[in-house]
Amino acid sequence: MNRYAALLRGIMPTNPNMKNEKLRAVFEGLGFEKVATLLSSGNVVFHSADTDMPELEARVQEALKAELGIPGGTIIRSYEELRKLIDTDPFPGLTHCRETYLTATFLKQAPPKLTHELLKHSEPGVRIVGYDEAARVVLSVIDNRDPRTPNFMAWMEKTYSKEITTRTWLTVQKTVKKLEA
Questions:
Q1: Cα–Cα distance for residue pair 173/168, rounded to 1 Å
Q2: Is the pLDDT of residue 84 over 80?
Q3: Which domain does 33 fall in, by range?
């Protein structure tokens, strides 16, 4: 069995159709095993014999829309991709805290000019740490000490499409631990 994490876009726990138990039910209805949710932000881990991740993404998204009316996007990463990402230690010496968020923005597809576009980004309060090609993820540090919120996510959507989703580095680490349990 293969281990996967589905990172769902646009999940709001206050919406009754987006509750963890309903999300789990959709995944279980698709025949996935060891389905579990993590936090209340659209993180679902599961086991499946399937290996075609784009097909898995399409199946999950179709079921979420049909059964719960959730139109957002679904990005799936394998346990191996996420484990390797964590093992690279992309934020050496940095700590996720209230003042500094360590973030991972997952892209559904890797754009051909990703590195060039990333180098163009110069918004104050955001530092691009790098891009992990295998996991298709942009790694960044967001400085929250300035009361003005950086508009990094809007820039990412404009540059790379809305087929992205961002998680804190702590959430990525918790997701991998959940997959290892």
A1: 9
A2: yes
A3: 2-79
